[in-house]
Amino acid sequence: MGRQLILGLVCVSLWWWPGVGWAHSEEATISIKTYTPVVVDGKLDDWVRRLEQHNWSAQLKVKKGDWLDAIRAVPAYVNALTSKVEAGVVTNPGDLSAVVYTMWDDQRFYVAAVVTDDQVVAQHQGEDIWQDDAVEIWLDCRHDALTHTLFQTDEYQLGFSPASQDRNQAVAWAWRNPKADAVVKAMTVASSGTPNGYLIEAAVPWAVLEGCRPAVGGMVGFNISVVDKDTDQLWTHVTWSGGLHSDPSQFGHLYFVDAPIDLFASDVLESAPEKQR
Questions:
Q1: For residues 28 and 117, what is the distance between their CA atoms, to the nearest angstrom?
Q2: Are 141 and 220 in contact (CB under 8 A)?
Q3: For burial by CB atoms within 10 Å, which of 129, 131, 214, 217 has the most?
Q4: What is the DSSP pairing of strand 76-78 with strand 96-104?
Q5: Does the pTM of the predicted model rise above 0.70?
């Protein structure tokens, strides 16, 4: 409920934002600012919000690697029910679904994805990783959607593919942008296997993303697509916003906020002055 309220307030306050070419989508999500840099290691322990000292059960779950209930970032869900299946077939939620998170600081844009996938297939390298299981992030930094294809200098397709039995490390790549080579060299990515699929964690320096200058209250055009390669079919493509993942005019909105969503009620109560009787 609190996160929905934050999103609503941000949307209301920014509807008049000057110079923005609004995407043809109502999808929106939030990127929370972090004041502690994220270590890209394929874990999500530094994405966890501060837990109350007496919340031993939650602390124990986090210690065991179960971070999802304590993540301080806002989730974006990508699955056959909430999103567009552009190609292929999703037979059930265990076949393919994902929860994608982002955070940011003044230096980097952070991405994490928890992917449910019953067959993790990843063997290609470099620009061909789109043929494997992968998570793709699409950015229109100026949010102007000048064309229906990504060829502007401020538009990016970023791909992250996990390690697998055929490839011993995660791989990142960038396509379409004229300066994509610099982005490829600057990105960092790591992954880990899960009982139901895989986890991807990545960071991209803002310095190599032309036009992306995040600030509290700002936003960019944003889309997510998840690619699933199974042994019995070429690939399945599921897209978060719109009907075509690569069309900036169908992107959703990613708002940059500095919201204290890791505060608990007790934090406020303990800091409040004692009531006068």
A1: 25
A2: yes
A3: 129
A4: antiparallel
A5: yes
Question: What single letter denotes the amino acid at residue 175?
Answer: W
Q: What is the DSSP string of the chain?
A: -HHHHHHHHHHHHHTT-TT----S---EEEEEE-SSPPP-SS--GGGBPPPPTT-HHHHHHHHTT--GGGB-SPPEEESTTTSEEEES---STTTEEEEEEEEE-SSEEEEEEEEEESS------GGGGGGSSEEEEEEETT----SSSS-STTEEEEEEE--BTTBSS-EEEEESSTTHHHHHHH-EEEEEEETTEEEEEEEEEGGGSTT----TT-EEEEEEEEEEEETTEEEEEEESSSS-TT-GGG-EEEEEE---TT--HHHHHHHSPPPP-
CA 239/CA 223 separation, integer angstroms: 8
Residue with tokens 């399945």: 236
Residue carrying the six token digits 């070429």? 234
Class of domain 2-270: mainly beta
Residue pLDDT, tens place only, 203-251: 999 999 998 989 999 999 999 999 888 776 677 878 998 777 778 888 9
Question: How far, in Å, CA of 207 to CA of 201, rounded?
Answer: 19
**For 22-41, what is the HEC assignment?**
CCCCCCEEEEEECCCCCCCC
Amino acid, res. 220: V
Report the alpha-carbon distance of residue 240 to residue 82 in Å, rounded.
8
pLDDT band, residue 274 (cuts 50/70/90): very low
